[in-house]
């Protein structure tokens, strides 16, 4: 008899598929998108080709990982980088004591993307495309793409000025850009400029640390820029954003049935494409449905999706979720879209398996014992149980 168990998220080494049930906050892959102090351990890469082994040399790590990028010889579409940054990027700057500085404080701007080590190829391709930044290991299972010099940060600022962020992270960038300009003009070396930096930092990410609040209690805090969703700008933005925040789920449940109805006896197969965000970005998910409609105006399936927008977007506590489960919508809209605008990284493997099962369902192979056994095998090979 075919058996299947729900996979527990905390057992997996890589958070590719983000849990949707009983979770009230947005998750990230290995804290992707969160700003932390980057470690100074650096990694050396061998080079990249499709499915080529990448070896990272350090005292902490000596393992082989595989590239899952669609084409490592080409540069990423700039909108892909923006979409991926909306999902996983972080704009920050540190203010630390420095006895050598005139004001006894040092200000350091930073752009950061942190991922699981298995997705190091994405960071390498972002670095190759932008031609700035460094890649550093962080512990034994994560890596960081970091841009911190003023000269190289100018490239980052120029990129997002041209290819604007779509989510609430756009407000973070506006604050970060003000801080960057102050530091670039060396105004942070004056008391007035430095206090302005403190005020701006109060509105960025988690705000001021307790130590900074106690040290500078009279600094005027800066109001966070108001955010407004202005629509999805480009299909490659969706590809980048989904490579970070999207999930491709395959569910196979045990049920009782008769031999004449093997699907009922051996299991019920279902597929789900989903994206989970903080409630603040609810309009982004609604905008995705609208954008799919603009690309497929003649499709009756997409028209139905547009007319039932609220059916696909659900809100729970502080989380908003987009979930598409109907096989006709997956076959006519989701799968063709990501075939044209590819997912990158480890998640591309999940999409390939997801597509494979969708085609099996269309061919009704899931109604046979042989087909269900194959689907179970595929399920166990997806993100949570994938062997590396």
* Pattern of helices and strands: EEHEEHEEHHHHHEHEHHHEEHHH
What name is given to the CATH topology of the domain at 229-385?
Endonuclease I-creI
What's the end-to-end separation, in Å? 28 Å
Shape: elongated
CATH class of the domain at 229-385: Alpha Beta
Major β-sheet annotation = 4 strands, antiparallel
Estimated share of beta-strand residues? 15-25%
Over the alpha carbons, how many angstroms does the gyration radius reach? 23 Å
Number of helices: 14
- For the record, the CATH architecture of the domain at 229-385 stands as Roll
Corresponding CATH superfamily of the domain at 229-385: Homing endonucleases
The order of strands across the largest sheet is 3-4-6-5
The total count of strands amounts to: 10
* Low-pLDDT stretches: 1-34, 36-67, 257-264
Mean pLDDT: 78
Q: Structural class given helices, strands, pairing?
A: alpha+beta
Helix content: 25-40%
